[in-house]
Structure formats: structure tokens, C-alpha cells
Amino acid sequence: MLAICDYQDREAFSELFEHFAPRIKAFLIKSGSDPVMAEECAQEAMITLWHKAALFDPTRASLSTWIFTIARNKKIDMLRKQNRPEPEELPWGPEPEPEAGDVIEMQQESEKLLHAIAALPQKQQEILKKAYYGDLTHQQLAVETGLPLGTIKSRIRLALEKLRHELE
Amino acid sequence: MASTQAMNDEMMLSYASGTLPAAFDLVVASHLSLNVESRIQVEAMEAVGGAILEKETPIKMSENALSICMSRIETETPKPRKAQSGNYVFPQPLREVVGGDLDSVQWRPIGGGVKQAILPCEGDSSVRLLSIPGGTAIPEHSHEGMELTLVLRGAFVDGQTRYGRGDMEYADDHTEHQPIAEDGETCICLTATDAPLKFNDLIPRILQPFAQI
């Protein structure tokens, strides 16, 4: 990633493309996009990643988290005429030289999060994923799963609580 | 206030997963520009999104996807977003919609000294700015569906809770609320509702004080 922003390294970019573009495509198809739009959106997201590489701060987010936000915003931009409103850049923004220790800490956190999600009970995992695939509102989720709306909401909350707890 | 907290969590999750209606996106993005705690909360939820993405079973891109991408990178130059610093009343996402800060707003009086400005927004949800003189009750809202209000200047009090700059209040059909602008400074709020816009431009001015806002 650093190679992309420092040297505009095409090889490093190709590797990221091979890893993430098919995952973005899969994520978007599960979110209700048709395959053509999902492919186009994955393209757009990867182009944005190239152009915004210098803004990536590895001490604040993992690469997959950052790419998730780019893909999410692209999807919305494609569905709407207006661009999605984004919060202001934080004043403490990316450091010119991130501390190696902070980067490693963030990587470890992300690993822990992956394990914590995998360790959730199956039903919580599924509902959590559906909340992120999003084209289903909570109301629709209730119809689809046959669970009352309150149960869906508390299950999502419970999953997030558990993750929070796991990471503390 | 447990239910309010739960609603707030749900708003943040919907924002993080990108599933909010446009009007609510604007209110939440503005809120996140002013509130570090919510910002951290959303970033944690985005990390969950990142983890779900990472674990996704890949679906093959088309044969020449990478080469198309590389050639587009060479030909397309993005419009960089200008980072603006300064003392603004409106956070950047709101300034981008209004086309400026508080002084660029085209207000329309709706009675009782209250003014509103409806902002352009896609979809069925709507978003508006409200200006409420100190000590004035915020006019009765039509409470079909959700409503999300962010304070940008001044403050309002609802029951036991005070909402100041950067604070957000959620309300829906089940919420009893009667927000009143705090004495003193005029309160400026950004409000999203998911009921479609009615009346506002059709009702003669004389009837406006009675119209739902």
C-alpha cells in the first residue's frame, strides 16, 4: 500500500486488485447489486483507492476497512445523483510517517476482530452480515427470518456488544 | 434514555453500512464532523464491515478487468476534495449541500419567528434547516416515521435533556417530545424526516403558522 502512494507502484496495485476487487464484487452482489453494476463499482472503488492512496492511515484503519468504506460510498454514489455526504477530514489526519508500532497494533486489532466475528453464534453472524448487506431493512429482515423486529435489533446489538467486549 | 441510545446505535450502524436514506446521511455525516465519540463508534462499525469484506468468497472479475482499471487510472484525474479550515457554523458536508455557510441560507418564515430552508435531497426522505428564536417551542412535527435532528448553533431542551451544538436527537411515532429552544441565542438545527414533503410551497403564507412543518 505504501508502495502505491510513494512510488505509484503498479505491481503492488495489481496484487491489491486481485485480492479486493473480486471480494468487493461479491459483497455488492450479496447487497443486491446486479453483477454488471457490482463489477463497475468494484472498478470504481479500486480506481479511487489508487488516487486516494496517500490518504490511507494504517494506524487508524485496516486496509480492508478502508476499502470497505470506499466501496460503500461508491455504491451509494452510483445509486444517487448526489454524491454521498462524507464527514470532514479529521484534523489529526494521517501522519506523514506512521509509527510502526501503531500500524502493527491496528493489524493485530483487525485480526482479533476477524476471529471474534468467526466466534459469534451462527445466527448472530448471519444477522450481522445481513445488516451490512443492507438492501434488507430491519423490517424486511424480520419478515425474512421470521423473527420479531425487536429480536433482530437486539441480536444485532448483541453481536456488536460481543465484538466490543472481545476487543477490549 | 436507553431507547434513545439504542436508536443512536442503529443510526450509526445504518450509516456505517451505507443503508440510510439520503436525508439522514447528511445529518449523520454532519454530526460525525462535530462529534468525535460517534466518529469512533462509526469507525468501529466500519471495521466490522471491513472484516466481512475480507472474509467474502471472491467472485471472479471479468477477464480484462485489471487492464481496464489501469488504463482508467491513467486517463481519469479525480476532483480532489478541498479541505477547508476556518470557523464555520456548518460542517463541511452541509456546506457542500447549502453552497456555503449559515449566511448563504435562503430562509423562509413559517410563523412564530421560526424560519426554515428545505435542502435539495433525493428520495422520499427530506432534510431542512430550522431557525428557532430562543425560548420558542420547535413547531409540532408530523410524526410519521423517523426524524433526526442535529443542533448546529444554540441549544434546545427536550424534557430533562439539553441538546447543544453537535448533539443529535432521534424521534419517531413512539416518541413523545416537545423540544424548546433555549433562551438566548437563536437555535439552528438540521432535521431529516422520512415522511415525504407536503404543503410547504402550496399553502398561502397566512396559513403557514398552522401548517405542519
Explain what you see.
The complex is a heterodimer of chains A (168) and B (213). By secondary structure, chain A is mainly α. Chain A has helices at 2-7, 10-30, 35-52, 63-79, 100-119, 122-133, 138-145, 149-167. Chain A contains 8 helices and no strands. In chain A, helix 3 crosses helix 4, helix 6 crosses helix 8 (149-167) and helix 7 packs across helix 8 (149-167). The two termini of chain A are 28 Å apart. Chain B has 213 residues and is of the alpha+beta class. Chain B is built from 5 helices and 9 strands, in the order αααααβββββββββ. In chain B, the strands form 2 sheets. In chain B, strands 1-2-3-9-4-7 form a 6-stranded antiparallel sheet. A 3-stranded antiparallel sheet of chain B has the order 6-5-8, with no helix packed on it. In chain B, strand 2 and strand 3 (126-132) form a beta hairpin. Chain B is globular. The two termini of chain B are 26 Å apart.
Low-confidence stretches of chain A: none
Mean of the pLDDT scores of chain A? 80
* Shape estimate of chain B: globular
Main β-sheet of chain A, in a few words? none
Give the fraction of residues assigned to helices of chain A: over 70%
Average predicted confidence as pLDDT of chain B? 83
- Separation of termini of chain A? 28 Å
> Largest interface here, residues on each chain?
A-B, 71 and 58 residues
Shape of chain A: globular
DSSP, total strands of chain A: 0
Order of helices and strands of chain A: HHHHHHHH
Give a quick account of the main beta sheet of chain B: strands, pairing sense, barrel closure.
6 strands, antiparallel
From the structure provided, what is the oligomeric state, counting identical versus distinct chains?
heterodimer
- Helical stretch tally of chain B: 5
Q: Given the structure, what is the number of helices of chain A?
A: 8
User: How large is the share of residues in beta strands of chain A?
Assistant: under 5%
How large is the radius of gyration of chain B?
Answer: 20 Å
Structural class of chain A: mainly alpha
Lateral strand order in the biggest sheet of chain B:
1-2-3-9-4-7
Backbone CA Rg of chain A: 18 Å
